[in-house]
Amino acid sequence: MRVLIIEDDKMTSEFIQAGFKQAGYTTIASTTGTEGLQLALTESFDIAIIDVMLPGLSGFEIVKKIRSAKITAPIIILSAKNEEINKVHGLECGADDYQTKPFSLTELLARASAQIRRATAISEPTELRVANLRLDLIARRVYRGETPIPLQPLELQLLEFLMRNKGRVVSRITIMEHVWEYHFDPHTNVVDSRICHLRDKIDRNFEPKLLKTIRGFGYVLGES
Known about the structure:
This protein is α/β, with parallel strands linked by helices.
């Protein structure tokens, strides 16, 4: 899935981009209304997050021009203006949703996912399973069978990444890039340490053992 982000505040834009990348999206971004509109008209995207107050063109103008070009991808307006009249205007321009600032990234991701589901009529999975290991993606809870397994946020992200790649060997560097989102010294043991803690929680008292080390290559989560 590809998300277009048009936001003139660099810190906010990078924050949104990081969140969507971690959730598995590809991002394209612009900090001006004029450039943002050009991207919207020339690049393919599955959803757009558009700020209202932009240099060049306002977010409302961009939404109107996107809809005039017969582009039907969902659009979420992002704005510090929370008055009802602004929300109504945004929706009348053709936006599908309106998120006010300051905002929760978790909520923005959930709104984006809901809009994409409506647009594509494809249901996103609500849980991931490997054998009797289950991750509830809505409640963000993990179980082996019926036994709940409390995980720290980073452990939860690590497990989700491994479950989404079940049966595949993933390298330490790949894990670093997708879970931590920046590069470590490749000789660091930070991944090994986290994997060790995660394995202790999800495997030590359960069968079958699921999290395996493939020496010299990385790790794999699976039944065999």
